[in-house]
């Protein structure tokens, strides 16, 4: 460990009992938070969410995410990127200059959300690949991590990333919902996986639950996120194992039950997601909270 990493680790151990967590992906620019964002951020803090990364999905959206970092300094950080659904919007060179300026801001800690999504045809696949490639190039130039979205496009996504070789910065697969085989491909590349409330929805024998329960996903490559207002953690899911439900504390459940719904998830749900992940992994929530917070602080430089 470097002296900086040791310092971060010691600071987090001081908060060990409070289950301090970091949300690496929340869409707080969504109109669903238009009337009460102050309350949403305060609830997150009360729940133990120390820092929140607000996801940029277009030039306009990335600009708004960066604006929030100035309203909530030290708590909110932003990403800047173009989601594959919005790839067709990047038709003018001036937009790329604007995106680069947003991505270069010190409060912006990653390039993305960017990637490929072949499950829907909002943008043609060849357009998605072109726009993703340019964002990977930008991340290499700025040496900022990549915040990656992928649905039904793993082979093409890995092919593009492989072309950058050793220039490639750290890669986070945001809101991972794939199979064990897909997860293994990312893990073998040294990528991080972001886990959300989807952990309650996944009923397959070969998905994220198995990656966690068989400890295929190393703790040092695990990150947690709410993807608010999406990915509500439905703790009443019928196929959620009893030993996992037992890992949930009354405090974390209260935040979810009082403030979160299927229509609007919030960052205050993150401690429950950490506890669920810990239940599947057979680890203590404190260990998972400490590891994921440390991973996020180190990877995105959120302590600065």
TrEMBL record:
<feature type="binding site">
    <location>
        <position position="149"/>
    </location>
    <ligand>
        <name>a divalent metal cation 2</name>
    </ligand>
</feature>
<keyword id="KW-0963">Cytoplasm</keyword>
<comment type="similarity">
    <text>Belongs to the metallo-dependent hydrolases superfamily. TatD-type hydrolase family.</text>
</comment>
<feature type="binding site">
    <location>
        <position position="174"/>
    </location>
    <ligand>
        <name>a divalent metal cation 2</name>
    </ligand>
</feature>
<keyword id="KW-0378">Hydrolase</keyword>
<comment type="function">
    <text>Deoxyribonuclease which catalyzes (in vitro) the decatenation of kinetoplast DNA, which are circular DNA catenated to each other, producing linear DNA molecules. Plays an important role in chromosomal segregation and cell cycle progression during eye development probably via its DNA decatenation activity.</text>
</comment>
<dbReference type="Pfam" id="PF01026">
    <property type="entry name" value="TatD_DNase"/>
</dbReference>
<keyword id="KW-0460">Magnesium</keyword>
<feature type="binding site">
    <location>
        <position position="227"/>
    </location>
    <ligand>
        <name>a divalent metal cation 1</name>
    </ligand>
</feature>
<keyword id="KW-0540">Nuclease</keyword>
<keyword id="KW-0479">Metal-binding</keyword>
<dbReference type="GO" id="GO:0046872">
    <property type="term" value="F:metal ion binding"/>
</dbReference>
<dbReference type="InterPro" id="IPR001130">
    <property type="entry name" value="TatD-like"/>
</dbReference>
<keyword id="KW-0269">Exonuclease</keyword>
<protein>
    <recommendedName>
        <fullName>Deoxyribonuclease TATDN1</fullName>
    </recommendedName>
</protein>
<dbReference type="GO" id="GO:0008310">
    <property type="term" value="F:single-stranded DNA 3'-5' DNA exonuclease activity"/>
</dbReference>
<dbReference type="GO" id="GO:0005829">
    <property type="term" value="C:cytosol"/>
</dbReference>
<dbReference type="InterPro" id="IPR032466">
    <property type="entry name" value="Metal_Hydrolase"/>
</dbReference>
<feature type="binding site">
    <location>
        <position position="113"/>
    </location>
    <ligand>
        <name>a divalent metal cation 1</name>
    </ligand>
</feature>
<dbReference type="InterPro" id="IPR050891">
    <property type="entry name" value="TatD-type_Hydrolase"/>
</dbReference>
